[in-house]
Specification:
Elements lengths: L1 E7 L7 H13 L3 E6 L17 H12 L2 E5 L9 H11 L17 E8 L5 H13 L3 E2 L5 E4 L2 H6 L6 H17 L1
Parallel strand pairs: 1-2, 1-3, 3-4, 4-5, 4-6
């Protein structure tokens, strides 16, 4: 059984991106084990405390090393990556060993795929920036900028989102891409 590491970029109770991740978890449940990595558990990146790494960073690195792929589900904050997600990848991109001339990191060579739900632009700015970041830190991003979904007004006013069949279909397409890649 393959192992997928899910990262949800929203801490909000009732997060629509967490809902997406739960739908995806159900889709892959026949062939993959899913573990969640909470980016909000990591301290702010600080080179003064990098070696030895703080315990939450070690936990995150171990989870990444054991995963076949990372699937990021994230909203977009001011056309950008949520700070906790960016901070997590900053930590994960750092060398595992002090002074390593090869800069081997927990994410170097790891595969990732991106999905997000948000406003009318479907998280395109965040997913574009995230793809660029992940490629810069030597990750392999499959499905390009991934898939984005737009929330309707009811989601914003009442906190209720009822994703349609097109959302499920696109998550299934991404799951198939993962299955072929791992």
């Amino acid at each position: 059984m393959k192992k997928l590491l899910f990262v949800v970029g929203s801490k909000r109770k009732g997060s629509f991106n967490r809902q997406l991740s739960l739908m995806a978890k159900d889709i892959v449940s026949q062939w993959a084990e899913v573990e969640y990595l909470d980016p909000y558990q990591l301290p702010f990146m600080d080179q003064d405390c990098e070696f030895p790494a703080p315990d939450p960073v070690d936990v995150a690195r171990k989870a990444v090393s054991e995963a076949d792929m990372i699937w990021v589900f994230t909203p977009e904050y001011n056309h950008q990556i949520p700070g906790a997600v960016k901070n997590m990848f900053d930590w994960l991109s750092r060398p595992l060993q002090q002074g390593d001339p090869n800069m081997v990191s927990a994410v170097k060579g790891k595969k990732a795929i991106l999905t997000g739900v948000g406003g009318g632009k479907r998280t395109v700015f965040c997913r574009t920036a995230l793809k660029e970041l992940l490629e810069f830190i030597s990750m392999e991003v499959i499905d390009g900028e991934g898939r984005g979904f737009s929330l309707d007004r009811r989601a914003f006013t009442e906190g209720i989102w009822e994703p349609g069949e097109e959302v499920v279909a696109e998550l299934k397409e991404q799951a198939e891409l993962i299955k072929k890649s791992v």
